[in-house]
Amino acid sequence: MHIDHLKIFVTVVELKHFSKAAKVLNLSQPNVSLHIRNLESELDTTLFIRSPKQVKVTAAGEMFYIKARQILSLYEEAKQEIADQQHIVQGTIKIGASFTIGEYILPRILAEYAKEHPKVNVEVMVGNTEEVMEKTRTNELDISLVEGEIDQEVEAVSFMDDEMIIIASSHHPLALISVATPELLQNQVWILRESGSGTRAYSNQLIQHLELKMKRSFVFSSSQGIKEAVSAGLGIAMISRLTVRKELELGELKEIAIANQRFTRKLSIIKGKHDFISRAHDLFIEKILNMKKS
């Protein structure tokens, strides 16, 4: 029995899908199926009931899944202990990040981390908060950095406060007002992120809280798209200050402050439900949490 067989089996069980498992493992779907058939032949049992619509784990498969997770955990733990004896931090970590964090925070952190731990391979997936959280739940990602509200199903630790601001083009009428009132935000054209985005969720909360009526709205799937749309005069938007620091300094965009209002959200670390967390994972999390002190 090969460790690769166990990894493939566990991934299929957790994703409940051969094709999705193949994508995550960077294998072809026929290759995944072949590994599972070989494993079933070796164990002389059926691990999955296959149908066109779903993959169901058999009773034998459920039992073997528990043992396979334990074997893989012990294997990774043994590898890490050997590496620790040699004072080497190695392995692979799969990191997810929402767009704001992935584009404006994570690159700098990874550059420092990679320099400190050259033997650690890092795979990064950037998506909206909803996508990243789902992939963390299914263990496709080891660690994820997300913004806004966190699903109670996952363990989360806050590592940073992120200030949200309203922006407009330097030529927008609101750009001439030093401090705006909620009334001045009525019947404006809003530029929004897509559903599932942490920024979109926060924008929706603000609009509901201030009971604002939108004249019209446009939806973009990236912060860069929002910045370009606002700069072109298409409308106003709520966005993380992190994403527009340069544009504000250059005067390309203007912040619309609201009297007696400051908007912040939490940026958090969430972890997949792995039986074994390597030293590489721990050191990456430690680096993120140390951002509070720097």
Automatic annotation (TrEMBL):
One of its GO terms (molecular function) is transcription cis-regulatory region binding. Residues 1-58 form the HTH lysR-type domain. The keyword Transcription applies. InterPro entries: LysR_HTH_N, LysR_subst-bd, WH-like_DNA-bd_sf, WH_DNA-bd_sf. Gene3D superfamilies: 3.40.190.290, Winged helix-like DNA-binding domain superfamily/Winged helix DNA-binding domain (1.10.10.10). Pfam families: HTH_1 (PF00126), LysR_substrate (PF03466). Keywords: DNA-binding, Transcription, Transcription regulation. Belongs to the LysR transcriptional regulatory family. This is LysR family transcriptional regulator.
